[in-house]
Amino acid sequence: MTKFVGLLHLCTPPMLKLPSIFKTQKHRSFNFRPRYYDADKEAFEERVRRIESELGADKSDLEATKLRIRQKFQNRRSGTGSASNKASNIRVLVILGILGALAYWILK
């Protein structure tokens, strides 16, 4: 019997806090500062850096290489491959259409 009372004591939830209208909890606040991104300005600065590196305006080869690599990654990400994706999607839709028509003809 004492073991059961001990287990009952372990299973009871802790005392819940009673709500109060006089002292309410304050909300959490975060130090969030939104950033502003200007894509046109970024592209312009990148063109200026590329032109300066091509003209040799006190830039090392390492900086020019970093710029070229960054540009290639951005070009890949920006949607240069979207034309190939579009062609692939059209091809898949045509194949599905043909298979659907063939299945309809066989099951008819």
Task: Give a brief rundown of this model.
α2 (39-55) runs antiparallel to α3 (61-80).
List the topology elements.
Layout: H1 2-11, H2 39-55, H3 61-80, H4 82-107
Helix pairs in contact: 2-3
What does this structure look like?
The protein has 108 residues and is an all-alpha fold. The chain is flat and about 75 Å long. It has helices at 2-11, 39-55, 61-80, 82-107. The protein has a domain at 37-75. It contains 4 helices and no strands.
Which key features would you list for this structure?
108 residues, mainly alpha, 68% helix
Ranges where pLDDT stays below 50 over 5 or more residues in a row are none
The backbone outline, from C-alpha atoms, is flat
Which radius of gyration do the C-alpha atoms yield? 33 Å
What structural class is derived from the secondary structure elements? mainly alpha
Give the total of beta strands. Answer: 0
